[in-house]
Structure formats: structure tokens, C-alpha cells
Amino acid sequence: MDLLNQIKASFQNAFHTAPLLVCSPGRVNLIGEHTDYNEGFVLPAAIDKAIFLAVSPRQDNELHFIAHDLDKTYQGSLSTLTPTHTWADYLLGTVAQFQLAGHQLSGFNCVFGGTIPMGAGLSSSAALENGVGFALNEMFGLGVDRLSMLKMSQRAENDFVGAKVGIMDMFASMMGKANHVIKLDCRSLEYTYAPFEMEGINIVLCDSRVKHSLVTSEYNTRRAECEVGVQALKPYYPEIKSLRDVTMTMLDKHLRDKQPLIYRRCAYVVQENQRLLDGVIKLEAGDIAGFGQLMYGSHEGLSHWYEVSCPELDTLVDIARGQAGVLGARMMGGGFGGCTINLVQEDTLTEFQNEITEQYKLRTGKDTYIHVCKIQNGTQLVSQ
Ligand code: GAF
């Protein structure tokens, strides 16, 4: 039985009624890392790895959740929404946001499970939050638009789960469009879709299968360091609101000698924004090899200037760089583990997979998982 049918069966078994089904995807990001919370640009897409949710409304105020993959349950009430510091917080936090926005809800049942590998940096948490919000909207006929829903997902994660993430992951999961990447301006939230149907090119994710414990604390530290940079420049350039408004000339003049660490962090962000803008032009021109070179540049910056990579991710990129048929590779997402994203020519795919698997084991003693992914639509109902 496939996963969706297992989830449906588990739902029927627990709640004896037919569910509404929602599919909410994970995401990749081609380039533009750690730029979202600096009001810069990102280039993500929703992928064919997703969380499936089966839901139905209840007559009372109770919340009955089953995490199919974890074999865990949660029971609570709409009137006592407090963090549990477990997986349930992604659902509870989203429910809390809908309540804060003044929507009338009743209790509901939910069984969910998915194909997004956990801890791989493919945004399973954003997918879950979006999936729950989308399900609430459908179940209770609330008429909330996608942009408002994904903003609620971000606030759920920021305020209830306690992770101060930017908007990219929720945006990509909710707004994804098959065979397109999203060029998102994280300041205005204006976005355009760019076709990504490169004949004979695959998006391949190599999972380092490590998640170093530094991830949350270092993420918050990087955010703070960017803010220190902005504040240090403000006396000279009062119009600056975020690193989006900063140039290398400003950084070179005022930060390079006085605050070398802050300079490196800010310089990475300023350059990554530029790489993204250059990359979009290359994609439009069909210059995928040129785009791939920018991906390597992004990885260098993330590893040496922003310092959010780790030996395992550096090793994966290093192995990929030496392979014929690999156009670009870099770490993806917050860092300190998770996946690298690679653009690999179709005819060298098997060779690439074999080589990465063998070399990664040899050099780190660890196994990798390799996922070839397709770009899909964002959060949606599943027709039954
Ligand atoms: C994580 C965050 F959730 C995103 O908002 C983004 O900052 C990303 O790290 C880095 O680009 O996925």
C-alpha cells in the first residue's frame, strides 16, 4: 500500500469517517541562501517530496492528531494551545495563528505522514505548517488566501515553535509551480515564476545525513551578526534598512578593517544576492553551466565567509565538483548538515550516484542518501 493509502487507512481506522486529503511539499533552493531574513532574494521551488494530511472536523473542541511515521499521538483542546516541544507544535502553532487572526474553528482530527526525509533540510516543518493551515481553510471554509496562510505558517514557526526562520520555506511550499522556480523578493514578497525545464538536467540532492546541534544557535547568531553590520553602517547611510540596501563599497569602507568577522558575514550576503540576480539572467539565457559556477561560488561563500557549512557538506560538494556531468553543487538551507543540491546531466546520473556514495563513505565513513527530484505544485488538495 502506498503512503497516502496507509494514511487514509489509519485515519479511517482511528476516526471512522472519510477524510479531506491535503498534500504539502518540501522545497529546494537553487541559489540565494541566508538572504531571506536580510530582505534579499531567493530562488526556491516545491518538490515531489511531501507531507500528506488526512483531516476531518469534529463536533467538539478537541484536537486528535496521529503522526503516522513516528507512530505517536497527541490529544488536546482548542482552549489550551501551549507548546509541547514536540512535533505537535507545528500543528498547534498553526491553529493558534488562525485563532489569533479571528477565525472560528472547531476541533479536528488529523493523521499525517510524508516522504520528506526528516532533518535533511528540505523543510518538512514548513510543509506541515502549510498543510495544516490549508486543511483548516478548506475544512472550515475560511476563505484565507495563500499568502496569508504562509505568513501564518512563518509566525507559527517563529512564535510557537521558537525558530526564527525567514519566509522562504513556507513560500516555496505554498506557492510552488510545477517545472518553475520562484524568484522571490523577500522584502516586498513580489515574485515571478521562471521556467526550469532543462532538457537532460536533473536536480539531485545528496543527504549528508548529519545534523549538527549548532544549527539553531548558529542560525540565530548569523541573523544577529547581519543586524550588527546594518547598525554599524547606519550612521554613515541612514537610509539603510537591511543588508539588501548595502553594497560592497560600503562594507569595504566601514567594516573590513574595524569588524572583520561582521564584514565577512555581511559580504557573503551582499554577494549572494548579486549571485542570485546574475543567476536568473543566466537561467533565462539557458546558460546552465554559468549558473552552476555561481552555485559553487555560493558554496564557497557559505563555507568560508558565512561559516554555516560542515566537513560532510564540503566533502559532498568537493566530490561532485570533480565529476563529469556535474554543472554545479552547493550546500542548501540553513547549513550544519542536511543536503547539497547538484545539477547533474542525465547521462552521467548513475555514475554520479555511484561515485558520491562510494567516495562519501570512503572520506567520512558515512552513508549518503541521494534523491533525484522534480519540481511540483505547492500545497493542494488531493483528489480522491
Ligand atoms: C532555513 C530557514 F528556514 C530559511 O528561512 C532560510 O533562512 C534558510 O535556512 C537559509 O537560506 O531553511
What key phrases describe this protein's structure?
single chain; 384 residues; alpha+beta; Ribosomal Protein S5, domain 2; Alpha-Beta Plaits; 6-stranded mixed sheet; 4-stranded antiparallel sheet; 11 helices; binds 2-deoxy-2-fluoro-alpha-D-galactopyranose; Mevalonate/galactokinase; Galactokinase_bac; metal-binding; transferase
Summarize the structure.
The chain is α+β, with helices and mostly antiparallel strands and 384 residues long.
Radius of gyration, rounded? Answer: 21 Å
CATH fold annotation of the largest domain: Ribosomal Protein S5, domain 2
- Order of strands, widest sheet: 5-4-6-3-1-13
CATH class value of the largest domain: Alpha Beta
Associated small molecules: 2-deoxy-2-fluoro-alpha-D-galactopyranose
As an assembly, this protein is single chain
**N- to C-terminal separation?**
15 Å
Spell the H/E element sequence.
Answer: HEEEEEHEHHHEEEHHHHHEEHEE
Nearest-integer average pLDDT: 96
Number of domains: 2
Domain GHMP kinase N-terminal: 92-177
Site (Transition state stabilizer): 27
Function: Catalyzes the transfer of the gamma-phosphate of ATP to D-galactose to form alpha-D-galactose-1-phosphate (Gal-1-P).
Enzyme class: transferase
